[in-house]
Design goal:
about 280 residues, alpha/beta, Rossmann fold, nine-stranded mixed beta sheet, 7 helices, 9 strands, about 25% strand
Length: about 280
């Protein structure tokens, strides 16, 4: 019988003291963006730890601390998979139409921590034809007065690795799965926030962490999400037989995380332990 542990920590992932060094096989996460999309509300007691309320310079500095912690807790040979996307509506910041690219802001601090870029996927979230009402610049009739621009319907899924000896891995996916997944372009829909998801909660589809967990870990491994959000990564880790640790700054997300992950659940085949730590609450 395998012992699986699930730990939700309400605290900033700039200090993950609850996680032992070199104890995690895989990190799967989607971090916030500097002052581009707010994930806390003004007045929240935890907003001081909300990196989405920082300017670009402070964001990069504090994210650097997160990536250093990620490097510390990863086992040699472990992986860190990060999902993010560029921001198409940069006019509010610059005063004229342009995109905000955050690739450099993400990649440089991650590699500065000691991890190195191993691979990348591009996730096509939806078809361009369905987005003309959302992005007015895509309308054919607006081409006479606006510069032509591509639809912003692609996100990044980049895989980094901590140097270490390669280990044999037990695969729990099929050859047919891999033929589909090894394509550099992933295609699955991005779900709209459901009624149970809190305002400001960026919810990525379960298929994204599911693929990453299967590709870069095996049953019984430990997965970490330093920006747990509504708990999608932990829910998939539990479903796939991996232990999981998740950090989240907002205390009010606890009910959503518990509901999505099935907090406290057990199964017939594994010994399961759940723990909630609220270090970040005064």
């Amino acid at each position: 019988m395998t012992e699986l542990n699930y730990k939700v920590v309400i605290a900033s992932s700039e200090n993950m003291k609850e996680v032992e060094s070199e104890s995690v096989q895989l990190i799967v996460t989607s971090p916030p963006y500097w002052f581009l999309v707010h994930f806390s509300e003004e007045g929240d007691p935890e907003s001081k730890d909300d990196l989405s309320r920082t300017n670009r310079e402070e964001f990069n500095k504090r994210m650097g601390e997160v990536w250093k912690e990620c490097y510390r807790v990863l086992k040699p040979g472990g992986f860190c998979v990060v999902n993010w996307e560029d921001i198409p509506t940069g006019s509010w910041l610059y005063g004229y139409p342009r995109e905000i690219s955050i690739v450099k802001d993400m990649v440089d601090p991650i590699e500065d921590s000691g991890l190195y870029l191993l691979s990348r996927w591009y996730w096509k979230k939806f078809e361009a034809g369905a987005a003309t009402s959302k992005f007015q610049y895509l309308l054919y009739g607006n081409l006479m007065k606006n510069d032509p621009r591509a639809c912003s319907n692609v996100a990044y899924v980049w895989a980094f690795k901590k140097r270490g000896k390669w280990r044999p891995k037990k695969l729990d996916f099929s050859k047919e799965d891999w033929i589909k997944w090894c394509d550099g372009h992933w295609r699955f829909d991005n779900p709209a926030n459901s009624a149970k998801d809190l305002p400001g909660g960026a919810v990525f589809p379960a298929e994204l962490p599911s693929r990453c967990i299967k590709i870069y870990s095996e049953p019984g491994d430990t997965v970490l999400d330093p920006f747990l959000g509504t708990g999608t990564t932990m829910a998939e880790a539990f479903r796939l037989g991996r232990s999981c640790i998740g950090y989240e700054i907002l205390n009010k997300r606890i009910p959503t995380i518990k509901a999505k992950t099935g907090f406290g659940s057990t199964n017939l085949f594994d010994q399961t332990k759940w723990e909630l730590i609220t270090r970040g609450i005064d």
